[in-house]
Amino acid sequence: MSTTAADPALATMTLITSFAEVDEVFRSSDFAPGWGLGANAPFRAHTMTALEGDEHFERRRREAVLFRKEALIVYDRDALVPAIARGIAAAAAAPDPDGVVRAELIGLVRPMLLAVSSTVAGIDGLDRLDAARAFLADAALMSEGSHVQWSARDQATVIRDGLAAKRRFTEQFVEPSWRRRQALAAQSPAGRSPDLLTLMIREQPYFSRWDADLIVREAMMYVTGGLFSPSNALPHIVEAVDRWLARHPGDRAKLSDLAFLRDAVTEGLRLHPPGPPKHRRALRDVTLASGRRVRSDEHLLLDIAAAGRDPAVFGADAHEFRVPRAATAQPFGMTFGGGPHACIGRGFTVGETWPGAPPGMLVRILAALYAAGMRPDPDRKPERISGHRQGNYAAYPLRFDGPAR
Amino acid sequence: MMVEIDPRRCQNTGYCIRLAPDVFGPGQDGAPTRVLIADPGPDLLGLAREAEALCPLGAITVGDGR
Fold first, then answer.
1. pLDDT of residue A36
2. Is B1 touching A (CB cutoff 8 A)?
3. ipTM of this complex
4. Residue of B nearest to A62 (CA)
5. Is B50–A356 a contact, with Cβ atoms under 8 angstroms apart?
6. CA atoms within a 13 Å half-sphere pointing along the CA-CB vector of A31
7. Which terminus of chain B has fewer Cβ atoms in its 10 Å neighbourhood, N or C?
């Protein structure tokens, strides 16, 4: 997903790179997400991320229940922590012939992330390591279909492959999970914090305004959204921490310090937003505070990576990884977007500060990996995805020199 | 239970005001959203907590909220 952009429309959009302008556009009700649905409609139509205005408010209000404090604690305790333990244990159980435990970071963490995103969505059966690994290829095809504008592959092929993956996802996972929840809902209509499918059953009068396939599309959005962006971000963070420790060896002891790791995650996300630029369409003629005039129906491409490195906000060393960095209102830059469409999973991904809050999904994973002695494998070079706009990695080799052995 | 808004995070989406207009109100001249009732009674507490989860920027905190 998101290699060199194939959609020629992208080249005609106005590129916005400054933090202030990106921030203003995100916040403004004069702009709406995207350039409308096209070939990716079978993946995104009427999902929360595709809605605008009142419809977005109504959907987000309902689905916000999935991210209440008590729900975040359950995701962390019952899904993430066991999945991390399973992943590290599986790696430790398969050392190389020289006795060293080696792994590949992206492949290692995706089942961990999938355990959480499938729990949020209410998709059963993906918390098992074998099932998760088998599903990841289909998840990638669905995600590529959803972001087809950014794919370097032939668009018709991307859509065909994505739809085939979606059919398998529907038959193997969504339909059985839906039937199970319908039976549970009949027995106990108002149980504890719901997952997405349970919420859609409870709120059927609302969700039945749209076609029945919305159930699949919305579940797909949660499952893949919580999977690829975090796993694409982690190699950048691990690499940045490794380079930081080479220059600041005294900080190595902080690898067990959750506050240090949270700063590292925040800084890594600021510098390396894992997803493509965001797009917005002007709903009317607008003059931004900078003086830039935007015409009605003009399409803007918001370069969140550039905005996150804006020296006007983050200082003269904005391009450098620094932990801790002086506090700003949005320390992770524009990685999670902004305004009404800001990422609904932001708090769980980076952690919140309320008493008893989970440390944040990425912080939790990094802490466990460092505790197991994880470090970049000096004998195997990471591989980047060819031509990827954000320089994301295809593979990031690790070795474990600690208790995981 | 105390309701607070982090003015550095608030981006004036207005979602909390639409949801709980008795608890939240607009700031003046583009200032961050204001808390109208910092210690809402039981009749408004549920809405305040819903707003806490709804806020896209995570700017609202309700007491110890657990």
1. 60
2. no
3. 0.94
4. B54
5. no
6. 29
7. C
The pLDDT of residue A23 is 95
Q: How many helical (H) and strand (E) elements, i.e. helices and strands, does chain B have?
A: 2, 4
Handedness of CA A92, A94, A98, A103 (dihedral sign): negative
Chain B residues inside the 8 Å CB shell of A68: 49, 52-53
When CB atoms are compared, the residue of A60, A340, A355 closest to B64 is: A355
DSSP state of B5: E
Tell me which CATH code domain B2-63 carries: 3.30.70.20
Cβ atoms within 10 Å of A65's Cβ, excluding its own: 17
Mean pLDDT along residues A183-209: 86
**Chain segment A339-396, per-residue pLDDT in tens:** 999 999 999 999 998 999 999 999 999 999 999 999 999 999 999 988 777 789 999 9
Contact residues, chain A, for B16 at CB < 8 Å? none
With an 8 Å Cβ cutoff, is A341 touching chain B? yes
- The tokens describing A160, both together, are 């065909």
What would the mean pLDDT of A283-307 be, rounded to a whole number? 96
Residue spans per domain, chain B:
2-63
The beta-carbon neighbor of A64 closest among B13, B54, B61 is: B54
Q: Are A272 and A334 in contact (CB under 8 A)?
A: no
Query: What are the distances in angstroms from CA A82 to CA A22, A88, A364, A368?
Result: 38, 10, 11, 11
Token duo for residue A67: 């991210």
pLDDT in the model for residue A202 = 93
| Cβ distance of B19 and A70 shorter than 8 Å | no
What are the counts of helices (DSSP H) followed by strands (DSSP E) for chain A? 17, 11
- Res A191: pLDDT: 58
Mean pLDDT score of chain A: 93
Is A30:A286 a contact under the CB 8 Å cutoff?
yes
Nearest Cα residue in chain B from A342: B56
Q: Which residues of A fall within a CB distance of 8 Å from B58? A: 346-347, 352
> pTM for the whole thing?
0.94
